[in-house]
């Protein structure tokens, strides 16, 4: 059985500091409280939450479910969520699903057992009745990610429209042989892929299966995409590639520079997200800008308003913007 001493050893803080953090005393720094609360959740040590539940008090803790913290998109999203939550007196803990639905179920169980006040689902491994039921209670807000046929309410962009506009731009620039890099498992119903196909069809361009590349969501995955592309006969290679994330795009660009491939003269590259790296790269990356900060802020404001019994702010589908730079 995990004890407060175990938490102290895990975090490096004294037992008295652990106790004060659990009671949310003001003489413990915000950083220490966050570290301690995160360790408590990871170690399944919740004496304070149980006691607060018995006294009818809130834990003042919000969980954020993401896929991988190593993806900078989620790092920026969590930063916006935490800043907004802290301003309203709440602490934030982060959970990674790592492509495992059972992890998602565990986080939902923590909410149902009142170890957390609320949950922001920024990534959903699979939609379940539990999620729908908890959304109706106001204790769960979904943002960023949902399945193509989902009816779950939440804070989203129009991924299909954003991709359609991005591919249409490439076509209008004269590119006809356009590749799609999904990043992760291929899903023909994916909203971005649907927008990609719709844009091709609107311009009578057939989709070539050899122009679809499936790799991890990171720089190394992008580098591998370019290496595979270069194995194709020169006359068959794509003229442009849409990468389903800026990390993928930056890996493709990096490998282009290594192999002496001119961008955009030989290969145009477009990303998605508009992370800071997009403006640091040489040449600078053309990409679809997501309002990551706004998404995090709005999701948090809605959740906390629900938890307090207040009217949540009105919102619509968040707008994206095509940031045209030097890679197209």
UniProtKB/TrEMBL annotation:
Residue ranges constituting the HTH lacI-type domain according to the UniProt record: 2-56
CDD domains: HTH_LacI, PBP1_CcpB-like
Claim: Transcription is one of the keywords in the record: yes
Family matches, as InterPro entries: HTH_LacI, LacI/GalR-like_sensor, Lambda_DNA-bd_dom_sf, Peripla_BP_I
A GO MF term: DNA-binding transcription factor activity
SUPFAM superfamilies xref list: lambda repressor-like DNA-binding domains, Periplasmic binding protein-like I
UniProt keyword annotations, A-Z: DNA-binding, Transcription, Transcription regulation
PANTHER family recorded: CATABOLITE CONTROL PROTEIN B, LACI-RELATED TRANSCRIPTIONAL REPRESSOR
Name of the protein in question: DegA family transcriptional regulator
Native organism: Pseudolactococcus plantarum
């Amino acid at each position: 059985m995990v004890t407060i001493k175990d938490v102290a050893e895990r975090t490096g803080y004294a037992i008295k500091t652990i106790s004060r953090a659990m009671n949310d005393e003001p003489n413990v720094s915000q950083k220490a409280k966050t570290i301690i609360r995160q360790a408590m959740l990871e170690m399944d040590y919740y004496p304070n939450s149980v006691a607060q539940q018995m006294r009818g008090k809130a834990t003042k803790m919000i969980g954020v479910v993401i896929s991988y913290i190593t993806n900078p998109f989620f790092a920026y999203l969590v930063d916006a969520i935490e800043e907004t939550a802290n301003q309203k007196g709440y602490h934030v803990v982060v959970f990674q699903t790592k492509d495992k639905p059972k992890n998602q179920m565990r986080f939902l169980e923590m909410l149902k057992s009142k170890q957390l006040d609320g949950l922001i689902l920024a990534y959903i491994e699979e939609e379940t009745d539990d999620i729908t039921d908890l959304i109706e209670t106001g204790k769960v807000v979904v943002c960023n990610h949902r399945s193509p046929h989902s009816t779950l309410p939440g804070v989203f962009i129009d991924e299909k429209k954003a991709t359609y506009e991005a591919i249409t731009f490439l076509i209008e620039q004269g590119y006809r042989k356009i590749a799609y890099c999904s990043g992760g498992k291929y899903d023909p119903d994916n909203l971005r892929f649907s927008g990609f196909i719709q844009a091709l069809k609107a311009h009578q361009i057939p989709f070539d299966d050899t122009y679809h590349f499936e790799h991890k969501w990171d720089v190394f995955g992008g580098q591998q995409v370019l290496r595979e592309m270069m194995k194709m006969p020169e006359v068959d290679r794509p003229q442009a590639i849409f990468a389903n994330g800026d990390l993928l795009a930056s890996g493709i660009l990096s490998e282009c520079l290594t192999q002496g491939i001119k961008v955009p003269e030989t290969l145009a590259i477009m990303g998605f997200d508009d992370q800071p790296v997009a403006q640091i790269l040489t040449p600078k990356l053309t990409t679809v800008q997501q309002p990551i900060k706004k998404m995090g802020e709005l999701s948090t404001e809605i959740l906390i308003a629900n938890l307090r019994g207040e009217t949540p702010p009105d919102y619509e589908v968040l707008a994206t913007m095509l940031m045209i730079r030097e890679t197209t």
